[in-house]
Design a protein that fits this description.
alpha/beta; glycosyltransferase; 367 residues; cell division; 6-stranded parallel sheet; Rossmann fold; GlycoTrans_28_N
C-alpha cells in the first residue's frame, strides 16, 4: 500500500496518523508512506524521527472572526491544494488519510479532486472545522467516540473505530513501567500529567493537595510537571512533610508513557482525545480536568463521555482546587471495589484494535 498521511499542529493529530501508518506497514511490509504537514507544526520534528519521508505545504487556519488574515488563508489554501496535487501526482498513493489540523484541508481536498480514495479520522467528540469541511469530500470517516456519529449522519461510510493510538499502548509492559520509576512492582501510585508542556492550573491544584497525601500512607504520586514548571515544582516539593516527600516523584517528562500508564492505579489528566484513548485501552480509572483553553472546548465532551460511563470523575477547571482534587482522589484510592468498577468501565470504552479497524476501512474504500 502506498499511503499518504496528513495531520498536524499537535500530537493529538500526529500520533493517530503515525499509528495508522504503522498498522499499514505491519500488515503490508512493502508499504510506502509519505507524510505531508507544515514546517511550523510539531510534525516537522516528530515525523522525520520516525523514519517516514516528510513534505511540507504552507497553510494557516481560519480565524473565527472577520479578518483580512482569512483572505490570506484562502490564498494559502489554494496554493496548498496546488502543491498537494504536485506531491500526490509524484508519489501516486493508493489512499490519503487525514487526522485533523488545518494542514489536512488542502491535502485531502486535493486528493478528492484527483480521484484518490480518502479517509479522515476525528479524535474528539465534537469534530473540528477542518474535518467538518472535509467530510463532504472524503470517501470514509472514522471516529474515536460513538457520540461523534451524529455529526457525520450525512455520510454513508462512517465507522466508530476508536483512536488508533490505543493500539500502540495495548501491549505496554507494566513491569517496565514500575522499573523505570524505581518502584517495586505492584506499588499503588497515582500518575498526574497535564500534557507534554504541563498545565499550570492542574499543577497548582496538585501542589496544594500533596500535603494531604499523609492520609494515604501506602500510595505514591508520580507528578509530571512539564518542563517549564519543573524547577518551580521541585522547590515547592521541598516544603512537604517528610512522610509525604518520599512518596512524591516529580518528573518534567516521561519518555515511556505507555509503560508507566499501564502500571498506574489512577490517572489525573487533561482530557485530550489521545490521552483518553490510551487510558481506556489500558482500563485505567481517571480524574479528568478538561482544558478550557482549546478550540470549541472540545475536551469537556471528551471527559463527559468517560464520566457518564462511570470510567472517570470530571472536575471542571473553574471548580478545581487542592481540596476538590484530594477529596476525589482519596475516595477512589481508598475504595478498591470502586477503582475496579471504573477500570472495567474504562476498558469497555477502550478500542485497542482501532488501528486495525481503520486499516480495514481503508482497504474497503480501495475496493
Amino acid at each position: 500500500m502506498r499511503l499518504v498521511l496528513t495531520g498536524g499542529g499537535t500530537g493529538g493529530h500526529i500520533y493517530p496518523a503515525l499509528a495508522i501508518g504503522r498498522e499499514a506497514a505491519e500488515r503490508e511490509p512493502d508499504s510506502s508512506l509519505l507524510y505531508i504537514g507544515t514546517t511550523k507544526g510539531l510534525e516537522s520534528r516528530i515525523v522525520p524521527n520516525q523514519g517516514i519521508p516528510f513534505e511540507s505545504i504552507d497553510i494557516t487556519g481560519f480565524r473565527r472572526s472577520l479578518s483580512m488574515e482569512n483572505v490570506k488563508t484562502i490564498v494559502r489554501f489554494l496554493q496548498g491544494v496546488k502543491r498537494s496535487k504536485e506531491l500526490l501526482r509524484s508519489f501516486k498513493p493508493d489512499a490519503v488519510v487525514g487526522t485533523g489540523g488545518y494542514v489536512c484541508g488542502p491535502v485531502v481536498y486535493a486528493a478528492s479532486r484527483l480521484g484518490i480514495p480518502t479517509l479522515i479520522h476525528e479524535q474528539n467528540v465534537v469534530p473540528g472545522l477542518t474535518n467538518k469541511f472535509l467530510s463532504r469530500y472524503a470517501d470514509a470517516v472514522a471516529v474515536s467516540f460513538a457520540d461523534s456519529l451524529p455529526h457525520f449522519s450525512g455520510k454513508r461510510n462512517v465507522l466508530h473505530a476508536g483512536n488508533p493510538v490505543a493500539s500502540m499502548v495495548a501491549k505496554a509492559n507494566r513491569s517496565e513501567g514500575f522499573k523505570s520509576l524505581g518502584l517495586p512492582e505492584g506499588t499503588p501510585f497515582v500518575l498526574a500529567v497535564g500534557g507534554s508542556r504541563g498545565a499550570k492550573a492542574l499543577n497548582e491544584a496538585i501542589l496544594e493537595m500533596l500535603p494531604g497525601l499523609e492520609s494515604l500512607a501506602d500510595v505514591h504520586f508520580v507528578f509530571v510537571t512539564g518542563e517549564r514548571y519543573y524547577e518551580e515544582a521541585l522547590a515547592r516539593l521541598q516544603e512537604l512533610p517528610a512522610k509525604v516527600k518520599g512518596r512524591v516523584h516529580a518528573l518534567h517528562y516521561i519518555n515511556n508513557m505507555p509503560e508507566v500508564l499501564s502500571a498506574a492505579s489512577l490517572v489525573v489528566s487533561r482530557a485530550g482525545a489521545s490521552s483518553l484513548a490510551e487510558i481506556t485501552s489500558l482500563g485505567i480509572p481517571s480524574i479528568l480536568v478538561p482544558s478550557p483553553n482549546v478550540t470549541n472546548n472540545h475536551q469537556q465532551p471528551n471527559a463527559e463521555s468517560l464520566a457518564v460511563a462511570g470510567a472517570a470523575v470530571m472536575i471542571l477547571e473553574k471548580d478545581l482546587n487542592g481540596g476538590a482534587l484530594l477529596s476525589n482522589l482519596s475516595a477512589i484510592m481508598k475504595d478498591r471495589s470502586r477503582r475496579e468498577a471504573m477500570a472495567v468501565a474504562a476498558r469497555k470504552l477502550g478500542m485497542p484494535k482501532a488501528a486495525s479497524a481503520i486499516y480495514e476501512q481503508i482497504k474497503g474504500i480501495l475496493k
